[in-house]
Design a protein that fits this description.
This protein is mostly helical. It has 2 domains: about 110 residues, no CATH class; about 140 residues, no CATH class. Helix content is about 70%, strand content about 5%. It contains 10 helices and 2 strands, in the order αααααααββααα. The protein has a two-stranded antiparallel ribbon. A hairpin with a 3-residue loop joins β1 and β2. The longest helix is centred in the last third of the chain and has 29 residues.
């Protein structure tokens, strides 16, 4: 019972912070996302490399933050996009720092540095495309709607999985033995329901059919994002990526679905010409 209350309270606080970050001001939005990137990359590096390679890990995190800030400035403040090319410099700095690592034991594990950068930073940076119009106007409602659908999918998968999936067929037993097809279909139903609600609330300025399609894309991509992180945790021997959110685990545990879902939803909007 105590754990349930802890999960509930921390979940409400987490939700309030996210909503505020999406709606109040672009710099609050950016600060929140930089914090999330730092937490997720630190968690990933801790799982993959423990306390080894401290300096390269710090440089890797700075590289991830730099990618996000570049995208924020390009899409929000029309900074020339060619300046992004300058981030080859910190990328080279990461590689040079590896040469100065004295303990070469497990040297091949330094490949995790680049995995952490490209797994986490670009998907979060892509969120800037969803919140900034072509003239630089900030509006986080579309991204917030994406997250509402992702969260609805998570709730549906959790509820239906616990109610009907315990003895049913598993979704991907080699990666996550607890995830079931019942949970998948429950998550999909609630994701579509959330998309329809967002549509009729006037937040999604797309046709109902497109809203349903976007919800399906976000749900399916989110499931793969969840499974991908589960595979990493299984291989690396961790149950949770961290403990920063009481009762919920780490930041990477909370955003694993979004790391796949946001690029998936963005790709749908771009390919269908819906993103103005």
């Amino acid at each position: 019972m105590k754990n349930t209350w802890v999960r509930t309270i921390s979940g409400i606080v987490f939700l309030a912070v996210m909503v505020a970050g999406f709606l109040i001001h672009p710099w609050i939005f950016a600060t929140l996302h930089v914090f999330i990137i730092i937490c997720m990359m630190a968690e990933f590096y801790r799982m993959a490399m423990d306390k080894r390679f401290k300096v390269p890990r710090i440089l890797g995190i700075l590289m991830g933050v730099g990618i996000y800030i570049a995208a924020f400035l390009v899409f929000g403040y029309k900074v020339p996009g060619r300046l992004i090319a300058l981030y080859v410099i910190p990328l080279l700095a990461v590689m040079v720092s590896i040469l100065y690592v004295k303990d070469k034991t497990g040297f091949k594990d330094l490949a995790f540095l680049f995995m952490g950068i490209f797994y986490i930073a670009p998907p979060v940076a892509a969120a800037n495309v969803l919140v900034f119009a072509k003239d630089g106007t900030f509006n986080g409602l579309l991204l917030l709607s994406f997250f509402c659908i992702i969260w609805a999918s998570d709730v549906g998968a959790y509820v239906f999985g616990h109610l009907f999936g315990e003895h049913g067929k598993k979704l991907f037993p080699s990666v996550s033995p607890k995830k079931s097809w019942a949970g998948f279909w429950g998550g999909l139903v609630l994701a579509i329901a959330a998309g329809v609600i967002v549509h009729y609330c006037g937040i999604f300025n797309f046709s109902l059919l497109h809203c349903i399609a976007i919800s399906v894309v976000l749900d399916v991509a989110g499931v793969y994002g969840d499974l991908f992180e589960s595979q990493w945790k299984r291989v690396l021997g961790y149950k949770d990526s961290g403990t920063i959110i009481p009762g919920h685990g780490g930041m990477l545990d909370r955003f694993d679905s979004a790391l796949f879902a946001i690029p998936g939803g963005l790709a749908y909007l771009i390919f269908t010409g819906l993103l103005a």
